[in-house]
Each structure stands twice: as C-alpha cells, then as structure tokens.
Amino acid sequence: MSDKRARNTDRDLDNEVARLEFQAVAFRRIIENEINTLSLEQGMSVLDAGCGTGAVSRTLARIVNPGTVTAIDINDLLIDKAQKLAIEEGIDNIRFELGDVRNLGFSDASFDVSYCRIVLMAVSDPVKAASELKRVTRSGGQVLVSDIDDDFMLVYPPIPTIMEVWRKYVKVAMDEGRDRYIGRKLFSILSQAGLKSVKIVPTVLHATQDSPEELRMLSSVPLRLMERAKEPVMEKGILTPTEYEAAMTEYNEFLNHPGAFLLMGTLFAIGTVP
Ligand SMILES: C[S@@+](CC[C@H](N)C(=O)[O-])C[C@H]1O[C@@H](n2cnc3c(N)ncnc32)[C@H](O)[C@@H]1O
C-alpha cells in the first residue's frame, strides 16, 4: 500500500471511529430507551452484533457486570479500536471478536440477550442475520434490532438544497446495498426469523433553539454521514463541490434560524425466542 493510501485509510478509520462515538452520544436517549426495554440483569451473557467502536457494548457491560458482553464486528480495524476504548475505560467484561452476523460462530442458545444496532441496513440478507441472532439466544431470551428509516424526519424551515444532496447520498447507498428504509421492515424481518411476540417501537428525538447545542448535535448526525460519503458520491459524478457547499451554507442558515425545529426517529423491534 502506498504511504498516501495508508494515510487515507488511517484517516478514514479515525473519522469513522469519531462518527460512531459521536452518534452514540447524540442518540443516547434512543439507546437508553432500547436498553431499558431489554430485561437485563447482572450476570447475564449478552451479544452485541455489529458493535462498531463498542459504545453500546460498554454500556451493556456495565449493566450486566459480572456477566459478559460478546461484541462482534465484520471490520477488524473497528474491533481493535473498540478493544482499546474498552481498556481505556477500565472495562474488562467484553469479549471482542471478528464475526459476521449472518453466520455467527457461536453454539445455539449461547446468550440471554442479543442486540444489533444499525447493522441490518448494511447486511445483504437481514432475515438470515435475524435467524442467526435467534439461534444463538436461549429460549425465552430477547432479540432486539434497531435501525434507521430515512422518511422518519421532520424539519423546519425547509432545507431543499440539503435534501437534494441527501437524496443523492441515499441513491448511492441504496445502489450499494445499504437499505436506508429498513426501519419499517423490522417487524417483518424478526417475524420471518421465527421470533415471537414481536413489538415495534418508534423512538424520536427533537431539538429547537430552546437548546441550540442539542439542535447542533442532532443535526450533525446526518451531516457527518454526508461529510464522510462526500468523496465517493462526487466520484460517481452525481454531486458537485458547488452543490455540496450550497448545502453547507443552507445548513448554517438553518442552525441560526430562530424557529429551527428538527425531529429524527429510529425504530427498534424486539422479540422473544420461542
Ligand atoms: C453504523 S455501525 C453501528 C455500530 C454500533 N452497533 C453502534 O450502534 O454504535 C454498523 C456496524 O456494523 C458492522 N457490520 C456491517 N455488516 C456486518 C456484518 N455482516 N456482520 C457484523 N458486523 C457488520 C460495521 O462494520 C459497523 O461497525
């Protein structure tokens, strides 16, 4: 690998680590809501599938201690980072492993609870992945999957330039197999995987000028994704630097608008293993 390419890869990884850790802070109330819905107890064994930087694994590990969290991800670089972050926080009850949620290397009924946040949108066969989560969870245990749905957002005043850039990003993501509208399908996915008593729970966050910092933080979640995807989308020739800059100008106007309002939601589905 050339030095320049290696530096880019390091920078991409650092950006992705920062983005995922930031997202866990911005969505902390959504994550709390999901975790509170799980019947977690000290001593339990929990799987966090597609753990990324392990922000959620660390929260789960604190709750179930002296139980354990097994955190897997398909990206070995993220697993290394996640391991370091857990050590830095003095958490020693997480086992990090490389793995694919569609083909988990664990025996049947290995876990009390399996959790999978914002992963299925990127997985080619989400029903197979959910079936694997069910297989490795004990009878009576819970499986929770959480994901996004890009129609689940309200904004005032209108931001047409940003929305146009966002549509281009979504098109590239969908063409590459990332389903940005998977949230509405989670009930169907868990039901097809054979889970029982499946419930779907929408969780929303909103922000106004009542709390400008909250407004900035919440709106930064899609913004950071756009920033990260900017170069690949431009390389496909469907987004120009001028369009992107116009979107950023509109974003600053939005942030300074006295009536600014943003509502963003995600959905989770929770089911029980028969
Ligand atoms: C948006 S991140 C979410 C990370 C974490 N769950 C969170 O909420 O902070 C998605 C993660 O899923 C991982 N991933 C994607 N496909 C996967 C697969 N087939 N098996 C396991 N992990 C996968 C990615 O590497 C990435 O770390």
Question: Would you mind describing this structure in some detail?
Answer:
With 274 residues, the protein is an alpha/beta fold. The protein has a single domain, classed as Vaccinia Virus protein VP39 (Rossmann fold, 3-Layer(aba) Sandwich). Helices cover 47% and strands 23% of the residues. The protein contains nine helices and eight strands. The protein has helices at residues 3-26, 28-37, 55-64, 76-88, 126-135, 160-175, 186-192, 212-235, 241-256, and strands spanning 45-49, 68-73, 94-98, 111-117, 137-147, 153-156, 196-208, 261-272. Strands 1, 2, 3, 4, 5, 6, 7 and 8 form an eight-stranded mixed sheet that branches. Strand 2, helix 4 (76-88) and strand 3 (94-98) form a beta-alpha-beta unit. The longest helix is centred in the first third of the chain and has 24 residues, at 3-26. It is globular, with a radius of gyration of 19 Å. The structure holds S-adenosylmethionine.
Any descriptors?
274 residues; alpha/beta; Rossmann fold; eight-stranded mixed beta sheet; 9 helices; 23% strand; globular; binds S-adenosylmethionine
Q: What's the gist of this structure?
A:
With 274 residues, the chain is of the alpha/beta class.
